[in-house]
Amino acid sequence: MRYQISGKQIDIGAALQSHVQDELNSVVQKYAERPTDAHVVFSKSGHEFVCEATVHLSTGLTAQAKAHENEIYAAFDACSAKMEKQLRRYKRRLKDHHKDRAEPVELFGASSYILASESNSEAEEPESLQPIIVAEMETPIPSLSVGEAVMQMELAGAPVLVFRNEGKNGLNVVYRREDGNIGWIDP
């Protein structure tokens, strides 16, 4: 498994990097069969250290965890515990989907835009109805079943996921509703 361990405006020593690799490897190998890479980012927020970890699995799924603590090692340990709990919850589902899937998830490219919001609610009438584009990015759209899409959305902690439905070959959306249930849009 490839590791990318970095810090935002803080130095990450060799001892911490070794600790992260050993601990994360034991957690991920315990619950996931073939992880491909892991990204761990440490930062400081006020007096607390923040640890964000993202692990990409060979099945195309992504698991993410984030934790805040007063010590940097404690922040990683809390993040690792959240990752372990998340992977343990989905171990059966991950294995079931992995058995059904002979090949990795196919990804399709799509453009993603960030539009400027109006900072003042009492702003003057805009000159045109065309929004101002702040950023343009390439976003991958995975080809998944509905169950895999829901699992991917929950693992990533995302409120919405756009995916290509394997069964119908059309674009679909799953999202978390305000009542806690999952919504599925199948046009």
From TrEMBL:
It comes from the Bacteria. Its main location: cytoplasm. One of its GO terms (molecular function) is ribosomal small subunit binding. It is found in: Cytoplasm. Pfam families: Ribosom_S30AE_C, Ribosomal_S30AE. One of its GO terms (biological process) is negative regulation of translational elongation. CDD domains: RaiA (cd00552). Keywords: Cytoplasm, Translation regulation. Residues 130-183 form the Sigma 54 modulation/S30EA ribosomal protein C-terminal domain. InterPro entries: HPF/YfiA_ribosome-assoc (IPR050574), HPF_long/plastid (IPR034694), RHF-like (IPR036567), RHF/RaiA (IPR003489), Ribosom_S30AE_C (IPR032528), Ribosom_S30AE_C_sf (IPR038416). SUPFAM superfamilies: Ribosome binding protein Y (YfiA homologue). GO terms for cellular component: cytosolic small ribosomal subunit. Belongs to the HPF/YfiA ribosome-associated protein family. Long HPF subfamily. Required for dimerization of active 70S ribosomes into 100S ribosomes in stationary phase; 100S ribosomes are translationally inactive and sometimes present during exponential growth. Interacts with 100S ribosomes. Associates exclusively with 100S ribosomes, which are dimers of 70S ribosomes. This is Ribosome hibernation promoting factor. It comes from Aliishimia ponticola. The gene is raiA.
